[in-house]
Amino acid sequence: MPLPPRHILSKSTFMYGCQCPKRLWLHKYRPEVRDEMDEEQEAIFQRGTDVGKLAEQLFPGGVDARPETPYAYQQSVVDTARYIAEGRDIIYEAAFQYEGLLCAVDILVKQGNQWYAYEVKSTGSVKPPHIPDAAFQYYVITQAGLELADFSIVHLNTDYVRFADLNVQELFTSESVLDRLLLMQEFIHEKGLALKTVVANKTEMPEVEVGDHCYKPYNCDFLGYCYQGIDDEEEVDFGEPYVNHGAIKAFLSQLEYPIYHIDFESWRTVVPEYDGHWPFRQVCFQYSVHVERAPGVEPEHNAYLAEGTHSSSLEFIESLLGVLGTQGTVLVYNISFEKPRLTELMNEHPQHAEAIQNVIDRIVDLMKPFRKDYRTPEMQGKWTIKKVLPALVPELSYNELTIGNGTDASNAFYHLQHTQNPDDVERTRAALLEYCKLDTLAMVKLLEVLRKR
Length: 453
Ligand code: SF4
Hints:
The protein is an alpha/beta fold.
């Protein structure tokens, strides 16, 4: 079989076009104006095991049709056709092309006389954007001439907890989505024709205004380009300062000394790497606690940073419980992070359940007053600590730090395992300690701001 001509739309570019034809056009003809990659989203998927590769072990012994370079997919199409003709019954990255549309499916399996397709996703369930994505694959594969008996999404099983060797059969769950794909085939056909016209028009960028579609199903990577100009023209008004004195008084009156300002840092991977871990588990490796023992007394600082590359959750929680005692308010900034981590640790270490529950019962969220009852224009309508701190305590800043946000912190800790140089290890650990310390010192200062009201 000769190589087919280069495709016009791949699955990714088809999906870009579904979100916005302008996005597809910019991707093809103005890639240089793309925003820089969102590191936070990328980080966890770059860490650890390649999920797609791992899922191949569900169907071992297959033949690999993946291309040598991203530009060699037409060879993959030819190879896939040959493997099918040769009677191979498990093909990884099987590629198909039909009228300028190209797709590759992660795993293609023949059972009896029927073919089954499996697409692997690094998520804990089937998500809505997976359906048009798989519908495109189903369309191309079946139009190219291969009948499929079923099409399934393979995703992580979030109930799986690792002990000893990774159990790949339990790590993944497979769910048929064929019914949903069949309902979309006409849409895919029409959309494919329309988007090929967009690509054919090299000199004419589609005119699309920015709107909700720029963020759904994913943030577009040309937001910076499309919003350029709009930001310059519109003066953003974040309003007048607003202080609800009654609510702040009520918030302060519930605090009991000693007041513990706490902050955790964590890392996570899609595939669990250690015993007792599950997919996407947030593994706490560090905490910082500033303790105000009494009014006007200088706060004490306590910190923990796991040795080595993965935190022992028992060591973490036992150290933390030792600092927090049994009385006084435990202040967090954004309860939705620390509280679930404590609940997980409680389930994992039932011998400490009572003490952890005591901590949970003492938690108060310092973010709450800044969300509702205290606003200044400098906060720019936001209430994260990274926005509130420079607005209200400008002398304290994250800007000077080597590690300046939680994503950097978790990446730095995770990558310590690949660092051989003791100086680098020492420098990274010092930067982590400094960063986490600033988070809880910031809380102390923000509480002072509230008290002065
Ligand atoms: S930012 Fe919005 S309008 Fe611009 S290309 Fe992306 S989706 Fe389209």
